[in-house]
């Protein structure tokens, strides 16, 4: 049978009974409180429905009831592993809405913290994916060792390890000292060695190759049509990286490549993150070399009581998970009239069913792991 | 290749799909992201045209947002001829200022942001409005054209009550099945809290102490 | 050879395992609570109120302007203004908070209250070992628990405290200089007024007493 609307086959069971399994929400491998209602015929998946909303905190309504400044700490908690990039997405949308400009040193510092965030996110994701596959913690702990170093840097810069609340519209909250930049430089010199070690750990592992190559293939056209973004899209061969397309911030001053995959399977997504970690290190080296002196905050900006003119704006960045966008409608008062988050994790889950059909249930876990979801962002 | 101006896109749509009503909505902010308001009957055809047109190729629907515009009241002062009683009892017709209030009905709105992965340009913003907020909240679904709108239209249905006709699986996504009411609307009243407000109670005790 | 990839991985694991005995970088475990990590200076946990001098009530910097209460995103601060006033560090009479409560079960340590305070009255503490078994009253910090001295602040955030203290000393000096200048100007005006009328009076009848010099109100330092 064929589903004409979604243009895919509806699998009817051949023999035996259908078993319905609810994977989650209490599950060690679903990356949070996330449920998948899976219909199985033997071990083969014939239907999969993702169910989420267990972490829904109505972040959008809270932000609409508060001022523009008050929403910044709440954006930290969207994708709670990458708070700096969440902040950047929101302040970029406010800057587009109110027409604010950012000093140059602030732009460089934003790039530095965003790329550090991307690095620790990809390292953590590879660790979690390999743990889901059964590598019981070793790659994860190696990734977390580097992640701790990055979080210590964030703590000495902004005061908190994960919920940094560091960016403001018009710049940053505090400036980085010379000592902090020197510490970042010394960390960045050690990062390529870490990536080599991390890659060598599992690059040629036969179990990994057997499980991930050919699993969860996402064809190129479906990826574009399903609004997939981020490393998952690039693993399917589509060259769309918002850092290169929109040239936001000062990214057009840096020389970095955008790795692309060929097959769109789980192995390509895993390699995509490794290659992006290497490109991230290149960007960090260049940014640390070229960062100018100067102020980090535009003095004319009113943080308290910002009242942009009525209008709307959509600002987006390339977060480690995909395209993170914020859509703001202002009605001239101090609270946003409409505040909407474009959650990359939730939208990347649209084709989870398509990727998992006809695979074994054991593959569902690794396919979900390669999508890279954080429930704080899926549910908001 | 740069995206054509919003008026040009409107002209292209009207040329290709006769009968489509396309209105340009200006955007007051410095971002200058103007939008196109479409009518219900032709919206799927317009969407398909925008996706497949050789120059535009808007194949990537990034964001579907629901917006609530509640009923408002506008008041205007108009001059009305009325019979006015003067102090000595005589009646005469004079022009008097009267404040006339008119109710502007509210609506729900679905805003779609479109980009192009092939041409790397955008955004083009299109809007669909419902007739009102109470009984007729139907708009056509654009999921058949952009699969990525599937979960987001479900979310707009869940949180605002906008019913998308033609959506393959329209049910609640963030709230649980059986939840009544639509949380993101401006007039939503949350159910009363059972947890006591400890800070206020303690503060009450403190100021008496 | 089948298994070569696995052996390569195991070589890496072995390098980390044996390396952890030799390189400090590879063994990152801290045996808490016997060892503790040193917190960097900027680290923040929950807010506290500052007071100057020995008395927490008299030296409290907070003037109950309620800006932090308005700007707090989860609205965890509750302030009630006092009816009377007390002088602040430049001598101006200011109100003070009769009630200042922070519900730390709601506080999300965002530091916005610190950013918006115009009186340097609220700052972030670094203490994180705050567990209590009283879920409601134990997590509501009142003015008594929140007020900590400036010396404590200098210990936990030395660079920030040095900056704040320098700025406040300068402000106090400027205020003193302004008050002294105002007093001198008033005295000069009074002396000029006292010099002129006696001359005028002497010319008329000489019995009128010299005009009293106008006294400007200067608050004692």
What are the main properties of this structure?
heterotrimer, B: 209 residues, alpha/beta, Beta Polymerase, domain 2, five-stranded mixed β-sheet, two-stranded antiparallel sheet, 4 helices, 9 strands, flat, C: 221 residues, alpha+beta, Alpha-Beta Plaits, three-stranded mixed β-sheet, three-stranded antiparallel β-sheet, 13% strand
How would you sum up this structure, described in words?
The complex is a heterotrimer of chains A (380), B (209) and C (221). By secondary structure, chain A is α+β, with helices and mostly antiparallel strands. Helices cover 47% and strands 14% of the residues of chain A. Chain A has helices at residues 59-65, 71-76, 83-98, 104-133, 138-158, 178-202, 206-212, 220-225, 231-235, 242-245, 266-290, 344-348, 352-356, 361-371, 375-379, and strands at residues 2-3, 8-9, 18-23, 35-41, 44-51, 167-168, 171-172, 311-319, 322-330, 336-342. In chain A, α4 packs antiparallel against α5. The longest helix of chain A has 30 residues, at 104-133. The model of chain A has no long low-confidence stretch (mean pLDDT 90). The model of chain B has no long low-confidence stretch (mean pLDDT 83). Chain B folds into 2 domains: 6-70 and 106-186, 2-Layer Sandwich (Beta Polymerase, domain 2); 72-105, no CATH class. Chain B is flat, with a radius of gyration of 25 Å. Chain B has helices at residues 6-16, 43-52, 149-160, 198-208, and strands spanning 22-25, 35-38, 60-69, 72-85, 91-104, 107-115, 124-129, 138-140, 163-165. Chain B has 4 helices and 9 strands. In chain B, β8 (138-140), α3 (149-160) and β9 form a beta-alpha-beta unit. Helix content of chain C is 39%, strand content 13%. Chain C has 6 helices and 8 strands. In chain C, a hairpin with a 5-residue loop joins β3 (86-87) and β4 (93-94). Chain C is elongated and about 115 Å long. The chains are: A alpha+beta (380), B alpha/beta (209), C alpha+beta (221). Chain A binds chain B through residues 3, 5-6, 52-53, 56, 58, 60-61, 96-99, 222, 224-228, 238, 240, 245, 308-316, 323, 325, 327, 329-330, 338, 340, 342, 346-347, 349-351, 379, and chain B through 27-31, 33, 59-63, 65, 67, 111, 113, 117, 120, 123, 125, 144, 146-152, 168, 172-176, 183-184.
